[in-house]
Amino acid sequence: MSAANVEFLTIEGEPCPPGQQPQRFTFRCVNGNRGLHPRLRDRTCGELLIANSGHGIKRDGQGLNGGRPQWDWDGNCEAPTFSPSINCEKHCGWHGYIRNGRCVSASGQDEPE
Ligand SMILES: [Zn+2]
Predict the structure, then answer these.
(1) How far does residue 42's CA lie from ligand 1's centre (Å)?
(2) Which tens digit of pLDDT belongs to each residue from 73-101?
(3) Long-range contacts of the stretch 88-95 (C-beta < 8 A, 24+)
């Protein structure tokens, strides 16, 4: 299985307190955890911005014009879906989606553990 283990964060990157609007998220890095001892803490990918969450940062998927890439969240805390796809080329090379709380490859397949 490939649970994304999404964690919701404040804009400063701290754990988001219950009842507060999360403004960033992080998730269990798909490639970064392959081959690690299962009892080690998950390596996470990014602290990605959630769009329209009140931070006021301009959105630009290319990071141009003072904007920053951001992801739309469906509001589901338990099994979140984000769009568009996530490209972790700076970290582990993974490119895919988080859908229903799972990591899915760019071609739509559930990622193997
Ligand atoms: Zn990664």
Answers:
(1) 11
(2) 999 999 999 999 998 876 788 899 999 99
(3) 88/29, 88/30, 88/31, 88/45, 88/46, 91/29, 91/32, 91/45, 91/46, 92/29, 92/30, 92/31, 92/32, 92/45, 93/31, 94/29, 94/30, 94/31, 94/32, 94/45
Task: Give me ligand 1 centre to Cα 27, in Å.
Answer: 9
**pLDDT < 70: residue spans in the chain:** 1, 90
Residue carrying structure tokens 């890439």: 69
* Model-wide pTM > 0.90: no
Q: What is the mean pLDDT of the chain?
A: 90
Distance in Å, CA 46 to ligand 1 centroid: 8
- Residue 33 CA to ligand 1 center (angstroms) comes to 8
